[in-house]
Amino acid sequence: MIVFENVGFKYKGSDDTNKYKNLSDINLKILKGEVVLLCGKSGCGKTTITRLINGLIPNFYDGKVEGKIRIAGNNIEGLDLDIISKSVGSVFQNPRSQFFNVDTIDELAFGCENRGMPSKQIYERLNNIIKPLNLEHLLNRNIFELSGGEKQRIACGSVGALLPEVLVLDEPSSNLDINSMRELKNIIGKWKAMGKTIVIAEHRLHYLMDVADRIIYMEDGIIKKDVNIDEFKLIESKELHSLGLRQSNGNSLSYKEKFVGTESIVLNNFYMKYGKRCVLNINNMKIFRGSVIAILGDNGAGKTTFANHLCGLVKKSSGNMENTCGKYYGKQRSKQFFMVMQDVNHQLFTESVEEEINLSLMCQRRLKKDKNNKKKCIENLLENLNLREYYKCHPMSLSGGQKQRVAIACALASEREFLVFDEPTSGLDYHHMMEVSKLLKKLSKMKKTIFIVTHDPELVSNTCDHVCFLKNGELDWIKPVSECENWLKSYFRI
To answer: How far apart are the first and last CA of the chain?
Structure first.
């Protein structure tokens, strides 16, 4: 179904000293009906291969392509994107990048309408995907009011309605909770049962172990390993980590308390409604200064809404934060908190990584006129987050994981006392996830209080002191991780 023969690719503007995302000597055959998982460290070339399959290269990403690529027996060189898209459907890391409508049903039908299908056929296509993909409760909803996981499911539905032979998924689980990952796994399983050929570029591996047929490990734009799923399952966690890969079995993690706080902080009366629907109602929540708190819950539970309220980003934000220094309301909290958003594209503004970090450093009065210390601070952040080779790059030219690290560098540069991270390890490989974990623990020792909205079991295991579980916009419970280890293992089990 998919054949790469001696394929190489070099992005326009890259040179021999910057091999980021470039490919060389790729020879690959993917059979009809196979589910193939592309994995490797951030920037290894996974996404570039998906772009070559779905035609985004060279139609949207300029560069030099070498070798031959065939999809379903057709040489795709010179083919227009609309021709390729009849055979290949794509689900991207950020589903918002592929939406064209505000209403969910309009979005599900859009691809079919765009193909000029008659109304009767469109309704048949929708009926064939809505129930199997469990989309009933998402119909007639405003897309912008959906959670990240709900948006991803609408994206899967809109692509599935076109019945492509090949499906390409780029980091599809990056914004999904555990339940949504289970549903995504089921969706992939159903596509597989229909004989679809599926290529998935992914860092989170454990949820795909029952549906993937082959694992292709990449490094510096080269295929290093191509093994079947049974061979891959025999690889120990230690070896996977050495390759920069996440664990293939999430149930072997341990959750131990890392911190016992003394100075308490109380959050009171956080409340918000969307129209008549209450989406947040937290009356009282006690935390400790310097602790790392994981905010867990299913997609749509109110986690991101709660994070926005904490940071004073919501207009007419209700609620207050009370500590020994007094009470802090909405705008007052905005000067105490810094948020790294789930979609970091919303908070990257400048022309280079260096300028982006410098923008946050400008908030520090002590560094405004001290150019030497400012330069040293930028260099330390670039070094700690492995961004030195990209410091002159435009942030929007980086991979999703690299953009995430730039945003984290900005958060550290701001020196705010309270830091909120919304899915900070989304799109990160094991090594970079551990680097983020070490930085968060270091900040905790500096008495920074850190809230992490996450669905990442390895991050919680390595980093967090307490777990706060939200349900339907309310605080269900908050406990030290050591007191809920068995619950966490059960919750993260796919």
So the answer is: 29
> What is the Cα Rg of the chain in Å?
23
Cα–Cα distance for residue pair 248/290, rounded to 1 Å: 32
Query: Which pLDDT tens digit goes with each residue over 79-109?
Result: 888 889 889 999 987 788 889 999 999 999 9
Average pLDDT over residues 219-236: 93
**Contact indicator for 166, 53 with CB cutoff of 8 Å:** yes
For the whole model, what pTM was predicted? 0.80
Distance of alpha carbon 55 from alpha carbon 80, whole angstroms: 8
48-62, 278-292, 365-379, 425-439: which has the minimum mean pLDDT? 365-379
| Helices 400-414, 353-361: inter-axial angle, 10-degree rounding | 20
State whether residue 25 is helix, strand or coil.
Answer: strand
Measured on CA atoms in the order 133, 138, 140, 146, is the torsion positive or negative? Answer: negative
Dihedral angle, C-alpha 323, 328, 334, 336, nearest 10 °: -30
- Rounded CA separation 52/63 (Å): 11
Q: What does the DSSP 8-state code read for residue 393?
A: S
Length of the chain: 494
The residue whose two tokens read 């006129």 is: 369
| DSSP output for 414-445 | HT-SEEEEESTTTT--HHHHHHHHHHHHHHHH
Q: Which CB contacts under 8 angstroms, 24+ apart, belong to 376-384? A: 377/413, 378/354, 378/413, 381/357, 381/409, 381/412, 381/413, 382/353, 382/354, 382/357, 382/409, 384/409, 384/435, 384/439
Query: How many whole angstroms separate alpha carbon 244 and alpha carbon 383?
Result: 18
Structural contact between residues 88 and 166, judged by C-beta atoms closer than 8 angstroms: yes
